[in-house]
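Per reviewer request, we include the raw input and output of the structure prediction for the construct analysed in the revised manuscript.
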Amino acid sequence: MSDARRIMRDAPEMLADLFDTIASAAAERGMNQEDADALALAVVDQLADAYAGQLLYFGKGTHMRLRQRDLDMYRDFDGHNHAELADKYKLSVVRVYAIIKKVTELISVEGQQSLL
């Protein structure tokens, strides 16, 4: 058991859950477990300092997840695979066209703004 896990053993439930979630996400991305635990402890410690005693509300993250889906779809797009993407993302072909257009325009605008 890592030192970080020993420290978190008697932590409040929400902090312990955050620790487990962060450590798991870091390990899934290739970080060794001890480093993942150390990162999770550092993040939980900073969150505890920043929000100690406050009531927190976590939204569902629907818009964030849709943005991620749209970016993933854009990255998967090869110029001709609208139907394949519609099947993969369980959308209509028309919706895929609209999403690709929207993301393309967004990326274009962001690129132009960075030139200013």
